[in-house]
Write a structure and sequence with these properties.
- The protein is mostly helical.
- It has a domain of 115 residues: Alpha Horseshoe (Leucine-rich Repeat Variant).
- It has 26 helices and two strands.
- It has a two-stranded antiparallel ribbon.
- β1 and β2 form a beta hairpin.
- α16 packs antiparallel against α17.
- The longest helix has 17 residues.
- The radius of gyration is 25 Å and the shape is globular.
Length: 449
């Protein structure tokens, strides 16, 4: 049986046979309490009747033992990802569980399986009255399944005190009934003070499917990964311009991620010290990090450099700090001469293959390295543009964006040969950029004599 491996799979590998054997092992013989969970996780990579039967047995188990309770949720998820329609009745029975997390994953699974059982819809609707449940997911599932009869209950939640519930209800009412009267309230959610609420607001915009909210979404101060997901979801196929937005202009800005292009939530009451601002780059709230970068760009780089060196090794262990260091290195260009090699080494550290392919700082690192060392960066271009060696589309796009200023310079025109294959790239945004670069280069080239 072929294994369907996820790029985010970091658990120790198990074969289908090994996973099935673990699920047949009595609890008191398990090596670790997490073994059932690990087995259920890996089984979902092996489609087929054996896998489905094993996961179904786990879902139908009434054991209250912790290893089973934990694994049961993963089994529900696995059956949904395997599109096992026969599992709908068993998953539906999980909606009556006293465990709200099992109820949550079951509601999501029924959505994924396109459950059209009105009795299960009714159970999900009744759960909306229970504040102990994850009502946001229940709303999303009912809306996705097109359960119009749920609209009256969902409408009452548009004024819920919890932003995540409120936003999901606003999006659902538009999706189920076409009610636009309160849809623009989602824009306000994009600027909520708590970052998680801003993340949820972007998903609400995606769920609503309303293109008119895209411009505000692109200015939300959150990780670019969330904004990229919204763009990919809302932008029409094979369309270069929509309303007053140009796809490539939007994408270029997303890759550069200049803080000035965002509507930052936070402000400083007093001018902070350089040390404080650098420390902010290690924070978890991206609005605060962007504000710190925005403020640091007006400071003296010769005074900043020693402060950065003090936390250099610490930054190399912090995903967010690596990302914002990359932006800072492009926002400020007149660093001390001795800093150039250090920055280049930092870029190569961030681009190392040991990091996950889909990590957010890799595209930023490509742009920064090309900024400081174009000749060295171009020697890696074929790797960055290859979908097999560089599976994250944003890395391939960043590489194209990085070489764009070089294409019209004397001696750099040969770079155009590197991008010819990307005109057929698996991702539509990369295809659009590659075709645009070729067209612009041809248009700017002098006519042949």
């Amino acid at each position: 049986m072929k294994e369907l491996k996820s790029p985010f799979d970091n658990l120790p590998s198990l074969s289908q046979e090994e996973a099935l054997k673990i699920l047949c092992t009595p609890i008191n013989k398990l090596e670790l309490a997490s073994d059932y969970y690990k087995a259920a996780f890996h089984l979902s990579k092996f489609p087929g009747p054996l896998t489905e039967r094993a996961l179904l047995r786990l879902v139908e188990s009434e054991s209250s033992e912790l290893p089973v309770v934990i694994a049961r949720k993963k089994a529900v998820e696995g059956l949904a990802r395997l599109r096992c329609i026969a599992a709908i009745p068993a998953i539906g029975r999980c909606l009556t569980s006293s465990d709200p997390y099992l109820v949550e994953i079951s509601a999501w699974a029924l959505q994924e399986l396109d459950c059209q059982d009105p009795d299960l819809h009714q159970v999900m609707m009744s759960l909306l009255d229970d504040r102990k449940q994850h009502r946001r997911v229940l709303i999303q599932s009912l809306a996705c399944l097109g359960v119009v009869s749920a609209a009256p209950r969902i409408k009452s939640l548009q004024d819920d005190a919890t932003p995540g519930v409120r936003g999901a209800a606003l999006a659902a009412m538009f999706r189920l009934c076409g009610h636009r009267d309160r849809l623009l309230e989602l824009e306000l959610h994009l600027a909520l003070p708590v970052q998680v609420d801003r993340h949820l607001a972007i998903q609400d915009v995606i769920d609503a499917g309303e293109f008119g909210l895209l411009k505000a979404t692109l200015r939300a101060p959150v990780s670019p990964t969330f904004r990229m997901r919204a763009l990919n979801s809302l932008w029409p196929e094979e369309v270069g311009q929509q309303n007053d937005l140009d796809l490539l202009v939007v994408l270029d800005a997303l890759m550069r991620d200049d803080p000035d292009d965002l509507d930052l939530v936070h402000r400083y009451d007093e001018s902070p010290t350089d040390s404080f601002l650098i420390e902010e780059l290690f924070g978890t709230d991206f609005s605060r990090c962007y504000l710190a970068v925005q403020t640091l760009r007006s400071r003296n780089p010769k005074e900043l450099w020693p402060l950065l060196l003090k936390c250099w090794e610490r930054a190399k262990k912090d995903y967010g700090a690596i990302y914002f260091f990359m932006i800072l290195f492009r926002c400020i260009t007149d660093w001390p001469e001795k800093a150039q090699q250090k920055i280049q080494d930092f870029c190569f550290f961030a681009l190392d293959r040991r990091w996950p392919d889909f990590i957010k700082f890799k595209p930023a690192s490509i742009l920064t390295l090309m900024h400081y060392s174009p000749e060295i960066a171009c020697s890696h271009l074929s790797q960055w543009l290859n979908p097999e060696k560089s599976p994250y589309w944003a890395c391939r796009y960043a590489a194209l964006l990085a070489i764009e200023p070089l294409l019209h310079l004397e001696g750099w025109g040969a770079l155009l040969e590197n991008i010819s294959s990307n005109k057929e790239d698996p991702h539509r945004f990369v295809r659009a950029k590659a075709n645009s670069l070729e067209m612009n280069h041809i248009g700017a080239s002098p006519p042949a004599s």
